[in-house]
Amino acid sequence: MSEPPTISILTPTRNRSATYLPQAIASVRALRGSRSYEHVVVDDGSTDDTSDYLAAECRADPRIRAVRHDSPRGVAAARNTALAAARGAFVVDLDDDDLLLESGVERRHRYLLEHSERWAVHANALKIDEGGRYLIGEDVINALCLDPARCARLFYSSEMIPNASTAMYRRTALVDLGGWDESLSCCEDYDLWLRSLDRYGPPGFLDEFVALYRKKDRGLGIDSVRSGAHARNQRRVQERWQHLVG
User: Fold this and answer.
1) What H or E segment, with its residue span, contains residue 68?
2) What distance in Å separates the CA atoms of residue 234 and residue 163, rounded to the nearest whole number?
């Protein structure tokens, strides 16, 4: 087996081979940096031509590795499958409708090398619309929070939740944490960050833009809000971690 890469980029996807997924993969290919990487893409039971598309991408680029679920299992399960397949010591979770900025992965990796006390780091994102146009004034801006109690309040209230595509994790720590909760149909990132506070304390923060976050009228996030699933899952998570805020 070849030497494992330094960084594994994880992308769960379903039925987006004709829309966002090729753009996400292209953004990974455009990365600048000296660190080796792999891109693990998990097809969560797509019914379009995602499987054939990924097979062709894997043949064209050995850094891409595809795994398929025969039927949909949800984004948390897809992320966990990608995590189980990952070989890098550091992990980036890239949603299939987001894009990486060319130097953002390298800078996050450098941060974690310089801050061995942090299990993860997150950063900022520029927001774009469905067509990739920049949305002025809607940037995703976070901040460093070193006080566990204050950080718990910010996370718990959703005043600040690290965006998935801006984060980098130490793979062993993420595995030991148990990955993402597959019983949640959404809010799995919300739960992960609160759970990590209980285990590892606050994450690090890089005050730079490292990704493009896509705002859409349709998709798992907005659809879960409209259906009420987001509110139900958020209540479950808040009940679970209420002890963090007293």
Assistant:
1) strand 64-69
2) 16
CB-based contact 211:165 (threshold 8 Å): yes
Residue environment code for 178-209, b if the CB has 16+ CB neighbours within 10 A, otherwise e = ebbbbebbbbbbbbbbbbbbeebebbbbbeeb
The pTM of the full predicted model, rounded to 2 decimals, is 0.94
Contact indicator for 125, 163 with CB cutoff of 8 Å? yes
Pairing between β-strand 204-214 and β-strand 99-100 as defined by DSSP bridges: antiparallel
Q: Could you report the per-residue pLDDT of 191-215, keeping only the tens digit for each?
A: 999 999 989 999 999 999 999 999 9
The Cα 163–Cα 47 span in angstroms is 28
Domains and CATH numbers, the chain: 7-245 (3.90.550.10)
